[in-house]
Amino acid sequence: MPQGKPDMLNIALPKGRLGDKVYALFAQIGYDCELYNEANRKLVISNEETGVSYFLVKPSDVAIYVERGAADIGVVGKDTLIESGADVYELLDLGLGKCRVAVAGPTGYREDRGSTLRVATKYGNIAKKYYASRNRDIEIIKLNGSIELAPILGLSDVIVDIVETGSTLRENNLAVLEEIMPISARLIANKSEYKFKKERIDSLTAGLRAELEKTR
Question: What are the DSSP E strand ranges found in the chain?
């Protein structure tokens, strides 16, 4: 299995806006890498002086890279972390990318408790756990995009999805029916690599915590 450089702290970052915010936070505490800001980014960028390597990966893959040891640490949304069931250490809530996992459906929707609830979602595990806690029979309809279409077209009764502002729901005559959990970006670590690089990882975590305290 390919590994990052053993003498470097190997960090899996999610591509996109969240990754940019996370990188800016890391850079503020001394883990900068000039190549990150270049227009044509490589997938692996390193700074020998600060001893850090960044891997730019799809957000939903961060937990896998960390769990499998390709990266020592990474940053992933709490929703993805729970859905994947990755066996990693969760070190710190970064407070970035705040939103919520919620049940949504047509405005004014009333649930028929006498029938199986059809739930469209890409968060099958989260939905199953939530409804199991309510002793509710459901049918999962696995979708990966445009989940709001499912109840509109009668494919499902409700959806379980990420909600930030709720504007997309409102524009499609949908509304939040129940909130399942708040989510935000979390710093995670590979369990084995944490033992070998504990001092460096703890130092980085402490630096992030101190930086975050300045804005709270």
Answer: 9-14, 44-47, 52-57, 73-77, 89-93, 99-106, 117-121, 138-142, 158-163, 174-183, 185-189
pLDDT at residue 1 is higher than 90: no
pLDDT band of 42, cuts 50, 70, 90: confident
Six-digit token string for 51: 């001893």
Q: Is beta strand 185-189 parallel, antiparallel or unpaired with respect to 73-77?
A: antiparallel
Taking residues 40-69, what's their average pLDDT? 90
Identify the bridge partners of residue 38 per DSSP, sorted by sequence position.
none
What the block records as the tokens of 72 is 């020592």
Cβ-based neighbours of 42, under 8 Å, separated by 6 or more? 35, 56
How far is residue 169's CA from residue 176's CA, in Å, rounded to a whole number?
Answer: 8
Classify the phi-psi angles of 69: left when phi > 0, otherwise alpha if psi is within -120 to 50, otherwise beta.
left
